[in-house]
Amino acid sequence: MPAAPAIDIPALQALLHQVVAPWVRQIDLRVLEARAGEVALALPIAAQHVHGGGVLCGQTMMAAADTAMILAIVSQTGSFQPMTTVQLQTSFLRPIPGSPDGNSGEARVVARVLRLGKSLAFGEIELQDPAGRLAAHSTTTYALL
Amino acid sequence: MPAAPAIDIPALQALLHQVVAPWVRQIDLRVLEARAGEVALALPIAAQHVHGGGVLCGQTMMAAADTAMILAIVSQTGSFQPMTTVQLQTSFLRPIPGSPDGNSGEARVVARVLRLGKSLAFGEIELQDPAGRLAAHSTTTYALL
Amino acid sequence: MPAAPAIDIPALQALLHQVVAPWVRQIDLRVLEARAGEVALALPIAAQHVHGGGVLCGQTMMAAADTAMILAIVSQTGSFQPMTTVQLQTSFLRPIPGSPDGNSGEARVVARVLRLGKSLAFGEIELQDPAGRLAAHSTTTYALL
Amino acid sequence: MPAAPAIDIPALQALLHQVVAPWVRQIDLRVLEARAGEVALALPIAAQHVHGGGVLCGQTMMAAADTAMILAIVSQTGSFQPMTTVQLQTSFLRPIPGSPDGNSGEARVVARVLRLGKSLAFGEIELQDPAGRLAAHSTTTYALL
Questions:
Q1: Domain tally for chain C?
Q2: Which of A67, A85, B54, D94 has the highest CB neighbour count under 10 A?
């Protein structure tokens, strides 16, 4: 198998900024790594995303998972095309503590394409806590429009 | 069956404000109706939540679903207790158009408890577009701590 | 709203027999009711489907849900067309007791189409125990081929 | 990390036979490998499980996934304890052709525990076609009773 072509991380970062809603942009995801069909993003555990129980809120995790999958698909197809989430299932395995008063490190979001068909793409997303342990796990189906 | 006791809507609204993360608070969910085990919320289709494709983003829908279920559980148990989402699955059935330049009406989020056990609660959430059509559908499991 | 056209129950029953695998046919689902986009089936709680814990096994419930959705889609489109399950999520809310020595009544499976698009169909399936209580709840996406 | 203790494959095979319903036993799953938290099973693509479209039916895949996870949990805990499936989500990525007239080789089912908590266990299951490609992917939550 030939090596996967290098993916342009700044281009993915710019795309992310461009396609997501302003509210989602606030999550401040940062593209760390990318290869064909897989991306890794940093997710800051910011006070804004910590709920009353003192942990990173699940809403942020789901939003990060959904967003990361767009980039994983683009990293496989090589360019952005219109697509829409058909379904996304998330299991929450382990809370990630956070502080209401500042940043509490970064979680890592790894999204990979499981299958890219003509009209549907399937993927899974792992969200790891700062210690590298699996904190949330998502599977998703996207429709390519 | 006796009528369900009236639920105090301002109290639910205050609880919502108190328990969710600041970022989720921005969704500006408004409690419309509540009875034991079921709540209806208004979700403003604000520019902040509209993505590059001109529709309400899925991340907002999932966040609203997850948040609404907390209130549905509280409306059934009568008081807030610590709980955590175990899993949440969302299907996206129909896009909800939105404008990047202002509000585009309101979606409606209806969450209901399907079963409340001793340690687990099951629920479903419907998200309806301004015309009342089903736009997203979630099912979820919560652990009562 | 005009009344939905009557659906031919014997035709649905024959279709069910014809399209499912022989192993699934053993579940012996019986079409009880049908209208456009919704069907109700009887599921015998037979000894064959009761596991070591003395309850109807989840595998049977998922198989019944998947099968019922095919008929719900056909009841809406009016004829069978090739289709395939994209995903199916099931939550198990309540066990249904069964005996290893014979039949233990019937569960009821109600499948309804939530949205029928050009290439995707979305649905939900309720499985009720003999007392009519919700025992399992599924949501599913089908691709229309 | 010390090597995981060897798991007794015949004991897992016997357990499988003992705990599942007679109808599920017909799938004839065969334990191939086991280590703490992960098992691999062979799933014969038998005519009984091939539907009218000429492929292994999804009902069989879901049943195999659910069953395999029980063994993965036992391989981690070291002994069988009562447990029940809370939810199981399956995505179907690729059809597995089969013949209505006999066996068509074997699929492989790999189940692994993602997290084993005190009361909940999370896992994922991959179903691979005879060529080793991912054909179905499940995630699941179990309650430990």
A1: 1
A2: A67
